Amino acid sequence: MAAGPDTPRVLEVWARLDSVTDPELDEPVTELGFVTGVEVAGDGGVHIRFRLPTYWCAANFAFLMADDMRRAALSLPWVTAATVELGEHMYAEAINHGMARGLAFRDAFGDEADDDLEALRRTFILKAFQRRQEALLRHLLEAGRRDPAALRALDAGGLRGLPADAPGRRLVDRYLALRDALFGASGSAFVDTEGVAVTAEAWPDHLAGLRRVWINTEFNGALCRGLLAARFDEEAPALDGEPTLADFIRRARRDICLPHPASERGENAQDHVA
Amino acid sequence: MYRTKDGDEIFIIDGHVHLWDGRPENWRNVHGQQFIDCFYGYHSFLQPKDKQWAREKFYHYGAETMHDDLFVRGYDDMAIFQPTYLKDFYVNGFNTLEQNAVLKAKYPDRFILNGAFDPRDGEAGLAQLEQDVETHGIKGVKLYTAEWKGDSKGYKLSDAGAQTFLAKAEALGIRNIHVHKGPTILPLNRDAFDVADIDDAATSFPNLNFIVEHCGLPRLDDFCWIATQETNVYGGLAVALPFIRNQPRYFAHVISQLLMWLGEDKLLYGSDYGIWTPDWLVEDFMAFEIPEDLTQETGAKLTLQAKKKILGLNAARLYGIDVEAQKAVLADARRPVAAE
Fold first, then answer.
1. Cα distance between residue B85 and residue B87, in whole Å
2. A-B interface: how many C-beta pairs under 8 angstroms?
3. Omega before A98 cis (within 30°)?
4. For the CA atoms of chain B, what is the radius of gyration?
5. Dist CA A72 CA A19 (whole Å)
6. Which member of A20, A167, A257, B261 has the greatest number of CB atoms within 10 A?
7. How many Å lie between the alpha carbon of A163 and the closest alpha carbon of chain B?
């Protein structure tokens, strides 16, 4: 017997899905509007439905997100099984089939899939780390913390303790969450992708490098957000005119996390859009 | 032709245009619909609201609309067709050399026809390439290395098969290889943004020019590095340019990096028509100035001379167009209408 849509268990799954990000955009799949439904059965089985900005979105990224969502759901102690279903996508069938059987990407797509998905995951986590650091540094510079030596002297605890307004706090928390996960909770606040503190000589090149990462990822990020809006806004009227629970949850989350309309573009975009 | 306030004439070659048939009757399957709808998403996102088309028009705008949008309402003087076959999705193909040739025949001085090849087509592909050169005298081709084909999930220009095709292309007199390295239109398995194979091909074929469409975004730093090493690598601005209107600060960053690493002689304007139209793109680009703080940071400047090169002179060099002679030809063609 399926539980009602507003049961605490459904909300628990939604909360776990908040930790799953689009690898390219580095934003939660829940906030992006990718997740369209969560169902919980009486026996602890979970079914998650999601969609993407285009029918053509890269199959490997789609598979990564589906896999991450399944793992996030399974991390709840009462979940006995988790299935993920991708809608309206060129490889929906292969991905859904792979998810249902717990296959690896390689197996789901046959011999021709030569990707190492774990390497891809690592690559994009490091890109996300660089993006978060860039957004945070830009924010700190604009807030008047212009002394590079002082920024380099900060350790992780010192950064956490800096007074900050709400947007600044979010940037600090998001950066430190990834920094801690990758390199541990101690040491210099601002490190390179090897976890090594940046020296005074290397600081200008480090900043220029972060800037290029932002330019690269923002290109695809901006396109994804634009295509997402174009595709989903159009399809919205087709949902019988009645907003779903997913819509309410998404809206409520947006209101809490992203108080400014402009910030719906994502923190990185907001920092740089003229 | 674009005229500045000072009366300076700027000759414009649009490096990237399409004439497609995305109508339902041409869809072979659901992929046909999804492909054109994805393009429509790009259009809805970056084409200014007051210039956006209804979906039906976007599916099929037709040859005369294209001509007028480019050369009458827009500032283009010439345009380069970059075909996209997609015969698995569209009964008659999406945007083929054969379809483009009809418009070229009607306006021979306006269009440059490019072809396409796929190394996975083997001998048949080589024969087709030979025939396309013979029939249409093509000087350039457009390649999609990320395209899935049968069991293949894409190819690299460094593959042996691709090298065979490049050698054949060079022997046939083709000079310009446009490679799609940008947003993923077709699904991919390997990292289709990877631009490393360009480096390999550009070294092996120093007499060919490699125009990396969409500037290898979002691998701009890798692309810039390769383009700095290789004198025969260029960047095409299609898809990057439309950001100029609603994200100008972002566009300023991109063009600064490209100017800093590649320089003004290695960049080509392209509208990607019918996704976007040249009227506002050219106006915005001509009016664009890189913000002072960015110029200080990178040293990159977008001067009038740089704009002239990017908008036409660089493409003219690659395709052997004598700009002054072409201006005279086009002026003659216009005279009955201009009635001066």
1. 6
2. 113
3. no
4. 19
5. 8
6. A20
7. 28
DSSP state of B74: S
d(CA B131, CA B317): 25
Global pTM reads: 0.85
Beta bridge partners of B213: B180, B236
Looking at the DSSP bridge assignments, the partners of residue B156 are none
| Chain centroid to CA B14 | 7
Question: If pLDDT is split at 50, 70 and 90, which confidence band does A113 have?
Answer: low
Q: Residue A80: which of A37, A48, A43 has the closest Cα? A: A43
Q: Where are the beta strands (DSSP E) in A169-236?
A: none
Map tokens 């634009």 to a residue: A226
Q: Which residues of A touch B243 (CB under 8 A)?
A: 222
Report the C-alpha gap between A212 and A215 in whole angstroms. 5
pLDDT of residue A79: 97
What's the one-letter identity of residue B323?
A: V
Among the partner-chain residues B40, B184, B249, the one whose CB lies closest to the CB of A272 is: B249
pLDDT at residue B183 in the model: 60
Show residues of chain A in contact with B294, CB under 8 Å. none
Q: Is A235 exposed, middle or buried (0-12, 13-18, 19+ CB in 10 A)?
A: exposed
SS3 assignment, position B317: helix
Tell me the per-residue pLDDT of B264-283, one tens digit each, with 9 for 90 and over: 999 999 999 999 999 999 99
